[in-house]
């Protein structure tokens, strides 16, 4: 029987007006059990916010980690995206990419930090994303290393342009990334072509490690689907928050 405590979740919706994207952007904010505004909390920021909550069940996992595993309570901020323009925002060759990075770092982060008691040190802030959400999280860290140093990458879409940008970096010793990819992702069709995600992740891992990044890397049986990532989320969260 499912434990009722795990299903009782507090999720607040916020909308910010982004001057960079020139449109409103919705945030879903999970507040942990026993939430108290006079305390301070680590925070996980998720790309594809709606999917992390609906398909990744991240709020239920968070409750379980906090209530049953003794993990320190944390806040989750899911940043929603319109799937029609997702590639334009998340891919470095997209026409909304720069605006999205600016919106995330210069509008969303200050909004959340002003309104919620999240900790402001980079070590208390985790970026999480699947596929292009994983790679855009890396791009955010590369552009704003004073804000982001910890990344959860679920089957990151590390296309050539992203790998080239990583290659240009000299020292990534400040970066700590948890990467996982499914072994059945070797021939995956996206809106920009068919890719071998296993190879993309292996070669990106090597690029990151050559530049001194701390990489926790896993390959497991799995496809490029939430059915795979959802089961892997608790271990990924525990890596940084446990």
From TrEMBL:
SUPFAM superfamilies xrefs: alpha/beta-Hydrolases (SSF53474)
UniProt-listed InterPro entries: AB_hydrolase_fold, Esterase-like, Mycobacterial_A85_antigen
Coiled-coil region list: none
Gene3D superfamilies (alphabetical): alpha/beta hydrolase (3.40.50.1820)
Domain of life: Bacteria
Pfam families: Esterase (PF00756)
Protein name, per record: Esterase family protein
Source organism of the structure: Paenibacillus lautus (Bacillus lautus)
């Amino acid at each position: 029987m499912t434990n009722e405590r795990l299903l009782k979740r507090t999720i607040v919706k916020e909308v910010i007006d982004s001057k960079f994207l020139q449109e409103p952007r919705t945030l879903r904010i999970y507040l942990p059990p026993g939430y108290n505004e006079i305390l301070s909390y680590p925070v996980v920021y998720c790309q594809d916010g709606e999917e992390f909550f609906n398909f990744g069940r991240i709020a239920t996992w968070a409750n379980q980690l906090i209530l049953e595993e003794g993990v320190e309570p944390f806040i989750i901020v899911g940043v929603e995206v319109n799937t029609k323009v997702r590639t334009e925002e998340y891919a470095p060759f997209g026409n909304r990419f720069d605006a999205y990075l600016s919106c995330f770092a210069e509008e969303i982060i200050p909004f959340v930090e002003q309104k919620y008691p999240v900790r402001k040190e980079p070590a208390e802030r985790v970026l999480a994303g699947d596929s292009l959400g994983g790679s855009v999280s890396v791009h955010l860290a590369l552009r704003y290393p004073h804000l982001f140093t910890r990344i959860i990458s679920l089957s990151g879409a590390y296309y050539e342009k992203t790998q080239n940008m990583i290659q240009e970096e000299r020292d990534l010793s400040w970066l700590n990334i948890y990467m996982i990819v499914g072994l059945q992702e070797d021939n995956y069709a996206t809106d920009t072509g068919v890719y071998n995600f296993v190879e993309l992740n292996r070669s990106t891992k090597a690029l990151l490690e050559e530049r001194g990044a701390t990489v926790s890397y896993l390959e497991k049986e799995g496809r490029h689907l939430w059915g795979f990532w959802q089961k892997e989320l608790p271990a990924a969260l525990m890596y940084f928050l446990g």
